[in-house]
Amino acid sequence: MASSDEPRSLRSLYEAAEEKRHALDNAFEATSPAYRADLEAALSLYARARDQIAAVSLFSPNEGVEDISTSDLPYLLLDAHVAELVQKTPNLSPDQRGGVLAQSRSAYERFLATVDGYGLVGSPYSQLLERYRDDPDSFSVVASNDPATRRDAKIANFRAEKQLKEKLETLRRNPRYLEHGDEELVRELYLTQITSAVHSAFQALDSLNRELAILAQAPRPLNP
Fold first, then answer.
1. Taking 50 as the threshold, does the pLDDT of residue 1 lie above it?
2. Single GO cellular component annotation (predicted)?
3. Contacts of 144 (CB under 8 A, 6+ apart)
4. Rounded CA gap, 12 and 59, in Å?
5. How far is Cα 77 from Cα 120, in angstroms, rounded to an integer?
6. 157-210 pLDDT, tens digit each
7. Which of 55, 105, 164, 207 has the most CB atoms lying inside 10 A of its own CB?
8. How many CB atoms lie within 10 A of CB 89?
9. What is the CA radius of gyration of the chain?
10. Going by C-beta distance under 8 Å and a sequence separation of 6 or more, which residues neighbour residue 167?
11. Level-2 CATH architecture, domain 59-216
12. Smallest Cα–Cα separation from 201: which of 98, 147, 144, 121?
């Protein structure tokens, strides 16, 4: 294993960050010092990986998704993972929580801008992205306030998420993926993961706006 001051490859940094992220997903003591340390370590690893991606200009606005090698596709998810992790920061005051949500929003925006540049935000998500960019602070996945419309939209969102998860599981169970690492299948898996992350990003931005509205009403401590 590389020492803390030894240069690490992009792949090594990203895999280490992913390992930390998966460990945090299964952690039970979200308020423990160890949890916070692991969270900070994961975010630091992702930041170092992002710096390396920028240094080598891995992603270019002048390229299409077909120009990205299959092994590099997972790096498109970096900021989506960061956005999710940042929101897990524990023990925050309302003002601190608001700052964390702002950081998460910025990471989601970076992710969506990058994948949109490669044409990976297709319908119906392209319409959601247009609405989000028009009014980020008031964005909601369901534009209507009609209860029936909102209920139907929630059901549709749930079904879309379920279908994406089922497709990912089907791809992962395919013998061509398990036994041979078939590049065509691996590429389809990675692209489906990106679509799933796009879906989750809009759900998260909707939830983020609702939480910010609640935080705006939260009482602040009086100055001594």
1. no
2. cytosol
3. 150, 153
4. 18
5. 12
6. 889 999 999 999 998 888 877 776 788 999 999 999 999 999 999 999 999 999
7. 105
8. 19
9. 19
10. 192
11. Alpha Horseshoe (1.25)
12. 121
CA distance readout (Å), 10 to 27, 46, 133, 203 = 26, 10, 31, 29
Ordered DSSP codes for 98-137: HHHHHHHHHHHHHHHHHHHHTT---TTHHHHHHHHHH-GG
- CA-nearest of 175, 207, 204, 177 to 192 is 177
Tell me the pLDDT tens digit for each residue of 50-93.
999 999 999 988 899 999 999 999 999 999 999 999 999 987 88
pTM: 0.89
pLDDT band at 9 (very low <50, low <70, confident <90, very high): very high
In this structure, the chain runs to a length of: 224
